[in-house]
Amino acid sequence: MNVPDKWRPYHCSDYYRSALAVSGWWDVEGQCWYIEPAERVYEDPVREFLVIGRPGVDGIEWGYRRNCEGLWAHYPIENEFRVIANSVSDLRDGYASGRIIV
User: Fold this and answer.
1) Does the predicted TM-score (pTM) go above 0.85?
2) What is the per-residue pLDDT across 30-45, written as a single tens digit (0 to 9) for each?
């Protein structure tokens, strides 16, 4: 899948090249879309943040920051961004294994 032109400033080609852009990552036990399919990805223009999913706790979202490399978590209570993975597959594998925690 190609990156839509409007999302090119987000360096999200790893997501659009992955199967996760098609099927997402739904956790049955947690009842949460950890990674959304591409049709549900959205931009928060104020934060310049392309949201691709969430861990399901404390309003945290993860995605891509405009003109920044890697995947980021946004912590709304502190209004803070933290880089959490180099790619969407690294995020999925790291969160599933417990290596990435929020």
Assistant:
1) yes
2) 899 999 999 999 999 9
